[in-house]
Write a structure and sequence with these properties.
- By secondary structure, the protein is an alpha+beta fold.
- It folds into 2 domains: 7-93, Winged helix-like DNA-binding domain superfamily/Winged helix DNA-binding domain (Arc Repressor Mutant, subunit A, Orthogonal Bundle); 97-199.
- It is 44% helix and 18% strand.
- The protein has helices at 7-10, 13-27, 36-43, 47-59, 83-93, 97-105, 141-151, 164-172, 176-182; strands at residues 34-35, 63-68, 71-76, 110-116, 133-137, 159-162, 187-192.
- The strands form 2 sheets. A 4-stranded mixed β-sheet has the order 6-5-4-7. The protein has a 3-stranded antiparallel β-sheet with strand order 1-3-2.
- Strand 2 and strand 3 form a beta hairpin.
C-alpha cells in the first residue's frame, strides 16, 4: 500500500490533509461546513497551522467561509474552476492504510485482523473480494461502522466478524468459505494470534 506523497506537491502536510478532506467530503456528497477546531481534531494538526492553511486556501478561492455565533466555518467552494481535477487527484491517491492500522491496534479484544490491500483503492473502484476485512472475536460494531463510514467516505466496505470458537469449528470441517477468505490475493494480516496465516 504505497503512498504518493502529495505534501511535496502542495507544500505542507497540513494543507494536503485539509484539501484531501474537503475534496473527498465533496465527492461523498457531504455539504457540511467545518470549524477549524473540529478540523484540528479530525486531522490531528495544530490549530494555528489549520487556521493559516484555511485562510490561504480561502484566498486562493478553493474554500469559502461564513461566520456563525462568532465562529468561522469553512466549506469547499463549488465554483472553484479546478474542482474536478483536484477531486480526482485525491480520489486516486487516498490511502487509508495507516489509519486502519492505528484503529485496529487499539482493538485489543481481536484475535485476528485481516485486511485486503485493495482497500487502498476503494474510493475509485469496487473489489471482487469475498470480504475486505475479516475479524475474529469481539469489536464494538457501532464504533466500527462509524470508523468505516468516516475513513471510506461512506463507501460500502464488506467485512465479516466471527468468534474464535466458530472459526476453530469451521476449520475442523474444512469450511470452504473461511479458507477462500484467508487465501484471497493481496491479504494483509495485521494481527494473527491464531496462526491463521500458517494454515494456508
Amino acid at each position: 500500500m504505497k503512498n504518493f506523497d502529495l505534501t511535496k506537491l502542495f507544500g505542507s502536510k497540513t494543507r494536503t490533509k485539509i484539501l484531501e478532506k474537503f475534496f473527498l467530503e465533496y465527492e461523498s456528497w457531504n455539504t457540511d461546513w467545518f470549524h477549524m477546531r473540529a478540523l484540528s481534531r479530525d486531522l490531528d494538526e495544530q490549530i494555528n497551522s489549520i487556521k493559516r492553511e484555511l485562510d490561504s486556501l480561502e484566498e486562493l478561492n478553493i474554500l469559502k467561509s461564513r461566520e456563525e455565533a462568532k465562529k468561522k466555518f469553512f466549506c469547499l467552494n463549488k465554483n472553484f474552476f479546478l474542482i474536478e481535477e483536484f477531486k480526482n487527484i485525491f480520489l486516486k491517491t487516498y490511502n487509508p492504510y495507516e489509519t486502519i492500522k492505528k484503529f485496529f491496534k487499539e482493538q485489543s479484544s481481536l484475535n485476528l485482523v485481516l485486511i485486503n490491500e485493495a482497500l487502498s483503492k476503494r474510493l475509485t473502484w469496487n473489489t471482487n473480494n469475498i470480504v475486505d476485512i475479516f475479524l475474529i472475536w469481539e469489536i464494538n460494531k457501532i464504533l466500527f461502522n462509524e470508523f468505516l463510514a468516516k475513513t471510506f467516505f461512506n463507501r460500502k466496505i464488506k467485512y465479516a466478524i466471527i468468534t474464535k470458537d466458530d472459526f476453530k469449528k469451521r476449520l475442523e470441517y474444512n469450511d470452504k468459505l473461511i479458507f477462500n477468505i484467508l487465501r484471497q490475493n493481496w491479504n494483509i494480516f495485521l494481527k494473527d494470534e491464531l496462526g491463521a496465516e500458517n494454515m494456508l
